[in-house]
Write a structure and sequence with these properties.
The protein is of the alpha/beta class. Helices cover about 45% and strands about 15% of the residues. The protein folds into two domains: about 180 residues, Rossmann fold (3-Layer(aba) Sandwich); about 100 residues, N-(1-d-carboxylethyl)-l-norvaline Dehydrogenase, domain 2 (Orthogonal Bundle), CATH 1.10.1040. α8 packs across α11. It starts with a strand and ends with a strand. The mean pLDDT is about 95.
Amino acid sequence: MSEFKVAVLGAGTMGAGIAQVAATAGHQAILCDINGEVLERAQVRISKSLDKAVSKGKLEAEVAEAARSRLSISTDRPGALADADIVIEAVPEIMDLKKKIFSEIDSEAPKAWLLGTNTSSLSVSEIASVTEKPERVIGLHFFNPPPIMKLVEVINASRTCPDVLKKTEDFVRGLGREPVTVIDAPGFATSRLGLVIGLEAMRMVEQGVAGPGAIDTAMELGYRHAMGPLKTTDWVGLDVRLAIAEHLFKEIGEQFRPPMILRRMVRGGKLGRKSGEGFYLWSEDGKCLGPNTNL
């Protein structure tokens, strides 16, 4: 496997997880953010995640230690990107923000053969439109949490070079992940299918058909989903799901209209696991305490 220098932009949950995956797979990974405190917290989370994987027997201690040695953090984005082979942007799902970053990193990363965006629903072709080399831009939709989830949705944008697509698929496999390649359509495949199930599950709660626990258990046992749609929503974040639903409602149509219960919960700060309350209640260390009966 070729070793690359991978620069990940954005030290939130997804960015930190992607950097951990890259470092564990043998790449030099540098995690960038404008906020030094956010970077330091991300580094601590990554270290704890590696320790947890070792304690559970999912990772050799030597591999975890090597991953730590290959991972660095930086607030100096131009310096980090100057000799990067791969850049993966993992900032919030805001089109203007992503386009601003891509318009800037185009010149900051002259060596990079891959400019990836970890978007779950936004147009990769539109993001690529602000660069001088759109053929290098591709969608890399990792799933939360990246160190555990094996799927990476690879979005082939309108001007992505076929060679870049092939090399990206190989890179993803080298991370120990399975690439699924789709065209650049609203919601791609996973967000479109996953969200429509999640929104219908919310409407069922709203209409009193069943509670979150019953709905999720039905999907887990009846359809062999690893996690039910409402618990998945709590993991993703209700605010994130609302933003995606609003986008797909505008792009595709009525089936993605956000239900009122979702809007109400987001307005009330019930964002899921990260806020401690969503369709379930969550402890400070992220353990599920059971369904939320106050909906």
